[in-house]
Specification:
Layout (H helix, E strand, L loop, with lengths): L1 E6 L4 E8 L2 E9 L4 H16 L8 E5 L5 H18 L3 E4 L1 H7 L5 E10 L2 E9 L5 E9 L1 H7 L6 E4 L3 H12 L3 E3 L9 H12 L21
Parallel strand pairs: 1-4, 4-5, 6-9, 9-10
Antiparallel strand pairs: 1-2, 2-3, 6-7, 7-8
Length: 222
């Protein structure tokens, strides 16, 4: 199956093409507050680089959050519009799951995004095979609450943009139990969104496009 994957939950805009779970081409660029003008041209450039026609895309994968309010809506709206127009299935993927899938580590993995206002959005996964296995649902809370929520006797690998602010607090709270992933692994990428979505699409599973909604860390400020 030829898949177009879209990731717009953070300041890193990311799009990728995959054949089943095998990456073909990807574009990853820092585009803070510029996802709207960036996304469509990036997809066009991606298809041209791979010498694919739009009609050759057989499935859409998209990150659904948690993440930025506006940027998530842009990615999901683009994915849904493409799927409707081309009559292909679409599958939403947790941003935290995609982030965990990009961490090159075994054992417990805690992807963590900055939810602002003194809180982080986190989840817990275990990696003992090709893809991480979810252990706990998403949690949005202050850092100390998240650290107390983690297993008390295991090393945990952390990744995500929250580390830019909270890496020191994690190290102080967990000591040697905390492993900080390399900075190159702190952003969710479309390649991993596509791989996770392919697992569902290959089983014939997909999302109803009218119920493909963003999962925000919290309600937007009005």
């Amino acid at each position: 199956m030829r898949i177009l994957a879209i990731e717009t939950a953070t300041s890193l805009g990311s799009v990728a093409l995959l054949e089943d779970d095998r990456p073909v081409r990807s574009i990853d660029e820092e585009v803070p507050r510029r996802h709207l003008e960036w996304l469509a041209p990036a997809i066009q450039r991606l298809l041209a680089d791979a010498d694919w026609q739009p009609a050759q895309v057989q499935g859409i994968a998209v990150s659904v959050g948690p993440g930025g309010f506006t940027s998530l809506r842009i990615g999901i709206a683009t994915a849904a519009a493409w799927a409707r127009a081309r009559r292909v299935p679409a599958a939403g993927v947790s941003t935290l799951a995609a982030l965990a899938a990009g961490v090159e580590a075994t054992g417990a993995i805690c992807p963590m995004l900055d939810a602002r206002r003194g809180e982080v959005a986190a989840a817990l996964f275990a990696r003992d095979g090709a893809e991480p296995r979810r252990l706990r649902d998403d949690l949005v809370a202050p850092l100390d609450q998240v650290l107390a929520w983690l297993p008390a006797d295991e090393q945990v690998t952390f990744a995500g943009d929250a580390l830019a602010t909270y890496a020191g607090g994690i190290a102080a709270g967990l000591g040697r139990r905390a492993i900080i992933a390399p900075k190159a692994q702190w952003a969710p990428r479309a390649v991993h969104v596509g791989r996770l979505a392919w697992q569902r699409l290959a089983r014939g599973e997909h999302d109803d496009l009218y119920y493909l909604w963003p999962v925000y860390a919290r309600a937007p400020v009005t």
